Amino acid sequence: MAKIILKENEKIEDLQCKGLKIIQNKKWFCFGMDAVLLANFCDKKRGAKTVDLGTGTGIIPLILYAKKHVDKVYGVEIQTEVAEMAKRSIEINGLQDKIEILNIDLKEVTKYLEPNSFDIVTSNPPYKLGNSGIVNPTDQKAISRHEILCTLEDVIKNASKLLKQYGKFYLVHRPDRLVDIMCLLRQYKLEPKRIRFIHPHINDKPNMVIIQASKNANRELKFDAPLYVYNENGNFSKEVHTIYDSEE
What we know:
27% of the residues lie in helices and 25% in strands. The chain is an alpha/beta fold. It has one domain: 3-Layer(aba) Sandwich (Rossmann fold). The strands form two sheets. Strands 3, 4, 5, 6, 7, 8, 9, 10 and 11 form a nine-stranded mixed β-sheet that branches. The chain is globular. It starts with 9 loop residues before the first strand and ends with a helix.
């Protein structure tokens, strides 16, 4: 592992997956279960060329490399400090030849990456509309949670630009934005193919939804079985344990 000097409020966490580590900043928006579930929802495609839009800490590229055996992953992150931290996470794992963090605006991604050339695009974007509550437009947590620097449409439009014919787009979001998501996917020629709802407990309404869409594909949407995060005892369900423990 490369020697990395940590900055204020930073710590290194063990991902417990093939020895991978990640730098987290406790004052910023750290990665959560949504990113882990999204990465595991992706189909395994050895050698796939992949982009993660709004990569944050770089957690999704790390999991995709470790578990899905993709060949090359680009992580796009507009916040300079966050992108720099993600780059250092890649360095401590010695994966600079496999994962590249681009400190750019995802709305300009096709200036840096070739359009119509990627097998997979993933995104765990901000969930909240930019006008939903009072937010600080320079705060890292606010930028991660609210559509301040990009919108859902920006993410979907640029995912479509990057993907090759029948390439796959994977998105995790909130169920209350589902109508917006489906309309925008169709608008940008990304046909919804799989959907899965994530529920905290078996009798709770879903609080996350994960969607796979395919560029210019035929119309057919399949529903995966719901995923329940916690069992009746308040512990992680067997499936969630499997997701976190599996090294595939």
